[in-house]
Amino acid sequence: MGLDTPLSGPLLVLIALALAAGVVLQVRRVRGLLRPGLVVGLALLRTTAFLAVLLLILNPFTRQTEPDPEGFRLAVLVDASGSMDARDLEGGAVTRIDRVNRWLADLQGPPFGPLVERGYRMEFHRFSEHLHPLPSGEPLRPLPGGTAIGDVLRELIDRPEGGGVPALGGVLLISDGRENRGQPMLEAGRSYRRRGIPVSTVLVGGDHPARAAVVSFARHRLEGRRDEPLELPLRAENPGDRPVTLELRLLDESGLLVDERVTLAAGERRSLDLSTTPRREGIRALRLEVRDVAAPAETPPAVDLALADVRPPDQFRVLYLAGALHPEHRFLLQVAGDAEEIALESLVRTGPENRFSAVDPAMDDYLEGHGFPEARPFYDGYDAILADTRALAELSEEARGHVLGFVDRRGGGLLVFGPPELLPEELAPLLPARSFDTVRLVRPQPLEVAPAPVFSPALGSRLFSPPAPFLPEDYGAWLAEDLKRAARPALMMPDGRPLLSVLAYGAGRTAYLGSLHTWTWRLDSDAGLEQHRLFWTHLLSWLAIGGKDRIESPAHGARVTLDELERLELDVLGADFRPSSEARISGLLTTPSGDVREVALLPSFRRPGRYSTGFAAEEAGLHRVAYEITFPDGETLRQETQFVVGHETLETRDLSADPAALRDLARLTGGIFIDGARTPDFSAIPLSEEIPMIESRRHWVDQRLLLPLFFLPLLLEWWLRRSVGLK
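Below the sequence we write its predicted structure tokens.
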């Protein structure tokens, strides 16, 4: 507050004294003539009039500061994502975008009117995943893609300023609060808080009309085994006020699988279970049709889609590669025959020009002459290899490199047995130990089984129960003397020296077994029979788990929405199991309606071995892509990718508004939260404290109330004096 008067201080004091003297003089003149009450009244009226005169002379004022409209801009971000097209306002008569369009149609009226009156420079944007200008007078329409509020806020604040563009003074975010892409809005809000820029939020949406009863898949991606029951959990909800009976039909490409009816009470919500037994392997699209039996027959059913990945029973392909016949081989065949998960194939040297072969017929092309195969695909076709050092010594230099690559890059498992001194030098790194000690026993020795990493007491308790497995007498054995740092003992002599040691090597696993006479356990007792089965089942499974496929599709077995999958991609490894960027990839895409079109995938410059092409799903259901991958050396691989596209999009999957997220963003940045259920008021939105301000003065004498304050006491005094007979 200040005084805006041209008079000096002493002169003002004299004027005040003169006015006070006038009041005193008046009181003295009428004190003997009037009643005391009238004297006091006249004195108060004269004092009030003199104070009004004094205010006119002093001319007091107050200082006011307000934002400079030319010194900042207010960004208005309007959500134009698909969820804003939800018709859930005013009983389902109005969409969220319709309500925002009403506000934008007349900026002079509410809610933008107060901001326009102050001259604020408002910058309007619409957004879904990115910011787009919103031209004046153009109605808001939904944009494609998801909702990335955090990314949009980051995009706005990261835009360079300068060049005559005013600084960002505040943000007004109009949205339903639902985001499904990019960084969270609160994470982006921290940048606004650090820079002192408030983000005020306006909620649009949330009045949900009554919904119909619904049954949907609880999980949209399921896994099962061929010829085994596949459980399908469902979610059922009846939000209505009457019971309903629903017909549930489960279908796949082969036809109707399940047809059931379920009755839901009013307001009931519960879980349901359907079951079907798949008879073939592969990706299957499951279609759930739900229809209210009381609805007219022409009413289309509600549809939900799920994907089932039906696999064969787990089975590992294991190759037994030996330079001579051995009794253990016979009993290993018995173990594999009793274990559904292990398929054991054999290739054994039986003489200088003789070979025993029991491999898959598909491998016959690699068996030339009487030696061991040299082609890389032969070895890479297995999950694990049991190799005698005699056989490994007979391999050609090229084949030895393939065995090394099978473990190092393919990720396969290798068990070596036999005299370690016969192992070729280039394969010595695969052994878990640097040196071995040859022993011959004069009596059986009990063996201690390590509980990790190969064996487990929970799965193979007999291995850890007495009587212990043993190493028979009169047979030689090779015991590891100097284990490598990463190696672990798995089967040990009483003195702790490992008979079986294991090692993680490259992408795969290796092991060395210093004796191949575990078959004697089977002949010793029933307990020994069980121990032999458990020992080899666990060891072979541990070796075979892992490995790499040369062709991988990120979309294979996925269940995506109509707008979620934007590219078809493949990751390709060459024959050496390293990423290959020189392949040519073509494919045939088959849509759910049966249409077929060609696609070509091109190599990525950012990720070696990745090939991709643009893709946009146009219909829901099971899609198949049959790829053909051709390498520069002429090798050709084929791969089929299958995935299911659901009916919904990212935006329609969840249409509920999220006021809590908008409220938290406003609180974090110093803005305010406004519920847009009714016409909101934007006049109180805060702005940054860093924007330029304009200072102005408001003089009291400019107030209209001061004129009555000046004249009314004089008129009242004149009337009162006349009423008592005074001049």
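The longest strand covers residues 282-292.
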